């Protein structure tokens, strides 16, 4: 197990998670039941519902690529936000009106940053994963590269959406972000507890009655440039439930929607002006042979969009809005979450 980097063609289908490299694409499907069959699968689930499951035949140890010559990022001044500061803070105020009216307790308001990539020949998403691994290491970092299926994702996600070990499933919702622990407010703790209750309810739909517990509540985790409040929710999957039921009952992740989820989704749809795509969806892997899986919430995630011509790099950022939210502070939180990673992708981050 040398950990030596394996050169790959930039258009070769592959996935990279947890120091493992998956190649030899066998099949691609949108049927979640396939994840209960056999083999190693890479999974990309867009927030809007598109599911891509890719089965690979070859799996071997391989570190994230250290080489960067296959990545030329956007110019730092070329990024455009789907919501500018005025529109975002107006959205925060609108959500507070919905809260005052009793329609929702919390909603996640997001914006998508986009920038053109200057050289299609130097737009290898796996090379960006290598940069992120060096400049912003994350527990659920990885790549899914399926160019012919419109999936090119590099994630540095710190958040667990679903982990599965046999019939045991767990989730690690994040709510509460600051530069340091001292920046975290009572509002952040209240928001975390609120989302934990939502995740408990989601897992309760697909887990055995009485099996859902909260082993950790509001634990402070340190990440590059910021801290998060993280909780853990765990349960035992019902014998008659598989991946189809698990995704149907828990997606989209509660931490990036709001509570109640149905009301939050309606409000999000009205206020956000760009699709989230892989951002706030799910990105990760399923080993059907071992009955194991690790899907991250698609935050701190870049993806390449080639649908309308020259490649465009996209990245999402957002914040959870409650009655206690200050619009300017919430905008600042979205900036904090984005600044380090956008600088890495643009080649301006100083290590």
CATH topology: Anthranilate synthase
Low-confidence regions: none
Along the chain, the helix and strand elements come as: EEEEEHEHEEEEEHEEHEHEEEEH
Which bin fits the share of residues in helices? 10-25%
Structural class: alpha+beta
Largest sheet: 18 strands, antiparallel
**What general form does the structure show?**
globular
Notes on the structure:
Helix content is 25%, strand content 36%. It has helices spanning 85-100, 125-135, 186-206, 243-250, 261-271, 327-346; strands spanning 14-17, 20-29, 40-45, 51-61, 80-81, 106-116, 140-146, 151-157, 160-165, 168-172, 174-178, 213-223, 226-236, 258-259, 282-287, 292-297, 301-305, 312-321. The chain is globular. The model has no long low-confidence stretch (mean pLDDT 94). The chain has one domain (14-62, 81-346): Anthranilate synthase, CATH 3.60.120. It has six helices and 18 strands.
Write the layout of secondary structure elements.
Layout: E1 14-17, E2 20-29, E3 40-45, E4 51-61, E5 80-81, H1 85-100, E6 106-116, H2 125-135, E7 140-146, E8 151-157, E9 160-165, E10 168-172, E11 174-178, H3 186-206, E12 213-223, E13 226-236, H4 243-250, E14 258-259, H5 261-271, E15 282-287, E16 292-297, E17 301-305, E18 312-321, H6 327-346
Antiparallel strand pairs: 1-2, 1-7, 2-4, 3-4, 3-15, 5-6, 6-14, 6-18, 7-8, 8-17, 9-10, 9-16, 10-13, 11-13, 12-13, 15-16, 17-18
Helix pairs in contact: 1-6, 3-4
């Amino acid at each position: 197990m040398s950990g030596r980097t394996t050169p790959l063609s930039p258009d070769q289908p592959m996935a990279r998670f947890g120091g493992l490299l998956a190649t030899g694409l066998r099949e691609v499907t949108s049927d979640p039941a396939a994840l209960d069959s056999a083999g190693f699968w890479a999974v990309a689930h867009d927030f809007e519902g598109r599911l891509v499951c890719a089965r690979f035949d070859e799996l071997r140890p391989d570190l994230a690529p250290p080489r960067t010559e296959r990545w030329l990022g956007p110019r730092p001044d070329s990024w455009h936000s789907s919501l500018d500061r005025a529109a975002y803070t107006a959205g925060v105020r609108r959500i507070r009106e919905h809260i005052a009216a009793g329609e929702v307790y919390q909603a996640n308001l997001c914006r998508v940053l986009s920038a053109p990539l200057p050289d299609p020949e130097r737009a290898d998403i796996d090379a960006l994963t290598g940069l992120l691994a060096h400049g912003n290491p994350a527990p659920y970092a990885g790549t899914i590269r399926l160019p012919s299926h419109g999936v090119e994702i590099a994630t540095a996600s710190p958040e667990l959406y679903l982990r599965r070990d046999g019939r045991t499933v767990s989730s690690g919702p994040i709510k509460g972000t600051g530069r340091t622990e001292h920046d975290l407010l009572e509002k952040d703790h209240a928001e975390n507890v609120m989302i934990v209750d939502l995740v408990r309810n989601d897992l309760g739909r697909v887990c055995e009655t009485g099996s859902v517990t909260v082993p950790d509540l509001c634990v402070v985790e340190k990440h590059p440039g910021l801290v998060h409040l993280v909780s853990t929710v765990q349960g035992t999957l019902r014998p008659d439930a598989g991946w189809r039921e698990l995704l149907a009952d828990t997606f989209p992740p509660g931490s990036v929607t709001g509570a109640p989820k149905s009301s939050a989704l309606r409000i999000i749809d009205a206020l956000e002006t760009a699709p989230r795509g892989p951002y706030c969806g799910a990105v990760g892997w399923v080993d059907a042979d071992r009955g194991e899986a690790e899907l991250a919430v698609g935050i701190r995630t870049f993806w390449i969009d080639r649908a309308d011509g020259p490649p465009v790099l996209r990245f999402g950022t957002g914040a959870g809005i409650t009655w206690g939210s200050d619009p300017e502070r919430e905008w600042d939180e979205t900036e904090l979450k984005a600044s380090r990673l956008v600088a890495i992708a643009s080649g301006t981050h100083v290590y």
